[in-house]
Design goal:
Largest sheet: 7 strands, antiparallel
Strand content: 15-25%
Strand order of the largest sheet: 15-12-14-13-17-18-16
Shape: globular
Radius of gyration: 23 Å
Distance between the termini: 22 Å
Number of strands: 18
Structural class: alpha+beta
Low-confidence stretches: none
Number of helices: 15
Mean pLDDT: 95
Length: 463
């Protein structure tokens, strides 16, 4: 627990509304969406400025307490869990959009701004912020950057990293860095900005970001297709990519659709049953685009790689079709899923999923498996549902026992054991399946450089 004198100093930094120690706050701010770890922070600090963040980190170095940075806490790897008496530093009071430049098409904001708020602001300027995912309504931009968030439109627009023009960061030593200043081109040596993107709050706390906005897409149209086998999904992807620039290509299994339809009260996209479903999105900005999509659909039917399909005729219908995919994670969360977030090169996806699916069927014979993901960029989400009669601890133990085999398959294809959810606590001890000893040694050296007293997010990413 914190020394009472330290609590007094924290109170002096953040004020009456910026420090919480009540049980409800400790439980709420001490966890993320991971269901494995129980929160046990000592206090919650809610700064309102970069200067206050800097003062908190400097105090941590002096007094010897540890800090867990906290955004929207929507992560799935335990990266925002405070389980060892740490002080949680939540940026939720730093929610201001500070600047917009129409010529640069850039926006500068504080790290606590909600992702959907940035999307809405961009839309009001007739522009577009392309990073999007189911948690956009609660995730914060600082956390998105700290985990290099991906989502549903990576196939067209890339990860969060591609949108970050500049950062303001307080390092683990309490030093303030202002990185890249919103420049598009800057060839003056090491770009430290990219060290903090994806660092999971282990090197510094991001307090401000400058983001690139882009042209708003025109008339986004959605197709949902029934597909007879997973290998056919990849053939569908190739066929549609040959004639369209897709903004999304998602997939989900019949089991995933079953839960969304059953628990959310949604209608099936069409009557024909299918073991897998593909969701495609494209800019339908001309008659030629729509005709190309329809022709690809007809070709798919003729080649038996598509069983049935539906195409949105309005933005309302497009949003309704997207809900079939976006509500999967929320829907199955009540069944205590054990999640793995894996990626390989797109050309290896079919081989990889079949190998993992076979392994899981053998080792998890009594468990229900739910597949979905962003296969347009090589990212698969494997979800194992806890049987209602099994205790949580026993279930997680069973799942962890198979991890090494799943990760060994991933390693054999030079893939990633965490495509977009980060490493955190959940994947920390498996990092060597995706990173070489030399890489890990350099990562440790960077941690020691930026956070020599190990005050930031202890035990996350690196053991």
């Amino acid at each position: 627990m914190l020394n009472p004198e330290v609590l007094v100093q924290l109170h002096h930094i953040v004020g009456d509304q910026g420090l919480r120690t009540d049980v409800l706050s400790l439980q709420t701010y001490g966890r993320d969406w991971t269901k494995i770890y129980e929160p046990a922070p000592s206090a919650i600090a809610l700064p309102k400025s970069t200067e206050q963040v800097q003062a908190i980190i400097q105090l941590a170095n002096q007094a010897g307490f540890k800090i867990v940075p906290s955004g929207g806490r929507t992560g799935l790897s335990g990266g925002a869990v405070a389980a060892q008496g740490e002080v949680v530093v939540s940026l939720e009071r730093m929610r201001h959009i500070l600047d917009f430049n129409v010529q640069d098409r850039s926006l500068t904001c504080e790290a606590g701004v909600i992702t959907a708020q940035i999307q809405q602001f961009a839309a009001e300027q007739n522009l577009f912020y392309p990073v999007d995912f189911a948690a956009a309504g609660s995730s914060q931009i600082g956390g998105n950057i700290a985990t290099n968030a991906g989502g549903i439109k990576v196939i067209r627009y890339g990860l969060t990293r591609q949108q970050v023009l500049g950062l303001e960061v307080v390092t683990g030593q309490g030093e303030l860095l202002k990185l890249n200043h919103g420049l598009v081109k800057n060839a003056t040596g090491y770009d430290l900005r990219h060290l903090f993107i994806g660092s999971e709050g282990t090197l510094g706390i991001i307090t401000q970001a400058s983001l690139q906005l882009i042209r708003a897409p025109d008339n986004l149209t959605v197709l949902v297709l029934g597909v007879p086998a997973f290998a056919a999904l990849m053939q569908v992807l190739l066929r549609f990519q040959a004639s369209l620039d897709l903004t999304a290509f998602e997939f989900f299994s019949a089991e995933a659709l079953h839960y969304v339809v059953q628990d959310q009260g949604l209608a099936k996209p069409f009557a024909t049953p299918a073991p897998y479903y593909a969701l495609l999105e494209f800019e339908n900005d001309s008659a030629g685009r729509e005709q190309a999509a329809l022709q690809a659909f007809q070709d798919g039917l003729a080649q038996n790689i598509v069983l049935d399909g539906v195409m949105s005729q309005s933005q309302t219908q497009a949003k309704a079709l997207w809900r079939l995919r976006e509500l999967i994670s929320e829907t199955i969360s009540v069944y205590t899923p054990y999640k793995n977030d894996l990626s390989v090169r797109v050309s290896q996806v079919a081989e990889f999923l079949q190998a993992v699916d076979q392994l899981v069927a053998e080792r998890y014979a009594a468990f229900e498996v739910i597949w979905y993901g962003h296969i347009g960029d090589g990212n698969l989400h494997l979800n194992i549902l806890k049987p209602a009669t099994m205790e949580k601890a026993e279930f997680f133990e069973h799942c962890a026992a198979v991890n090494e085999q799943v990760f060994a398959l991933t390693q054999s294809l030079k893939g990633s054991i965490s495509a977009e959810h980060g490493v955190g606590l959940l994947k920390r001890d498996y990092l060597a399946y995706s990173r070489s000893p030399e890489e890990i040694a350099y990562m440790r050296a960077m941690k020691a450089l930026f956070d020599p007293n190990q005050v930031l997010n202890p035990g996350k990413l690196l053991s």
